[in-house]
């Protein structure tokens, strides 16, 4: 079993990548569990036709802590979990993640025979709780989603700093492109700059958001679209990835020169 | 039910349990004042307790480096064999990765982490988490863990069925005046009556509570009457340190010529030892029962009874259980720390005064 966590700048497409990755891995025969760690609870929404499942923390409040009752089966047999958390502006979402992950736990995943656990983590690493999925016993390696835009790479680098400080391994970078010039090369150069690798880069494609409007992944709405092959490729590379290592974050100047260098 | 009465705290329970395990140093990863009253008492009992003295700044930026530094400092200052690191509300809310800090400090062979904070329910949860961490660290075996876990869960049940967790708010009380209770006991002995004394004490508090059976036995020697002595003084059950307490008290009784008629269990078995004691006394003939320590763990019997507790908030629940008198040993905790022999109790002194013994 492999456990991975997906980090990246807010709004960069972590949930789109995670859900499309999950359903394509499932169609390759893997048992997949997607754990959405955002208190907004929108990571798994495309597995359930737009329906929001009950969150671990809502159920926890009602005294329900049996992992079997916290996990839902979505499209293509992918299992989905939403950690949930407090409403915006109150409580402590970070603590919520720690409590929810402890309630679920690795022994249970092993017992259920999952091949891959994917944690979809909100935004950058903002507090100790949000780094929870990156801790020992949780994700074995981290993937960062970024576009080739400066702020997105800057956020990725900030996450890489967190991983460096926490001594956590990074599996690579997944590009989610916005359509700027030489974008894939920019992301690739940045990946190499921090001693990591570009797993693959997904082009901007209206089929992704067309599917999302219906609460679906691309595989469900456009099963024959070649985009699915890209997600399968990313999935297989992650499953077989043996090159995870702690990244060496770079400087702001270096990022600017890498990104600027391709114009 | 949301209980309003302030109650014992899981962090403090974790610290006490580390002491029971003969851990040399407890490092509380939290504010300098967290559990400080308990920490001071525990230091008198030989275990070092330090904190990482977390500040506002640490809440914002995290304090793992500080924890590592403190671990190095205590290692140098006290050369401990074992160190227990205990969580606190703040360090756990901000998500401090204590396990990693221990590994990074290079002290993982002597330090282990007890993942606990103040909002985790009954205080016994702190004790259970500590024992579990100690088991994983190799200080105790699984059987001992399971036995103690069962006891602690039963203790929690006792508190919610018959102790201060029974109602929403429990007023503290000092109960009946000590002199009234002492006179009553001595008068019965003068009338040649038979008194059964059950010592059902929790761990080190027995050093104080044992003084009451001791005083009653001395008064009986002077004035007559007779005493049945029952106590949870088994030297076969529990952690080394706890068995040592039982040994000490038995020796004190022995040197005062007192025989224990029945051993009702070990010193951490107070949730069940009370039942054993009452079962033993079922067909015995006596005129008064004096239950000291954790009387709330005793089944109710149809006999004139006196309860002696150390919790002012246990008084009303005990009165509800039908005890004729309930009285409180108010100073119990501070006096027993670091002792190896029975210490004077307030009721014991009152009995000695009433009986004219010095």
From TrEMBL, chain A:
Its cofactor is [4Fe-4S] cluster. It holds the Pfam family Fer4_NifH. InterPro entries: NifH/chlL_CS, NifH/frxC, P-loop_NTPase. Belongs to the NifH/BchL/ChlL family. It comes from the Archaea. This is Protochlorophyllide reductase iron-sulfur ATP-binding protein. One of its GO terms (molecular function) is oxidoreductase activity. Keywords: ATP-binding, Iron, Iron-sulfur, Metal-binding, Nucleotide-binding.
Automatic annotation (TrEMBL), chain B:
InterPro entries: CfbD, Nase/OxRdtase_comp1, Ni-siroh_cyclase_CfbD. GO terms for molecular function: oxidoreductase activity. Pfam families: Oxidored_nitro. Coiled coil: none annotated. Gene3D superfamilies: Nitrogenase molybdenum iron protein domain (3.40.50.1980). Residues 16-137 form the Nitrogenase/oxidoreductase component domain. This is Nitrogenase component 1 type Oxidoreductase. It comes from Candidatus Methanofastidiosum methylothiophilum.
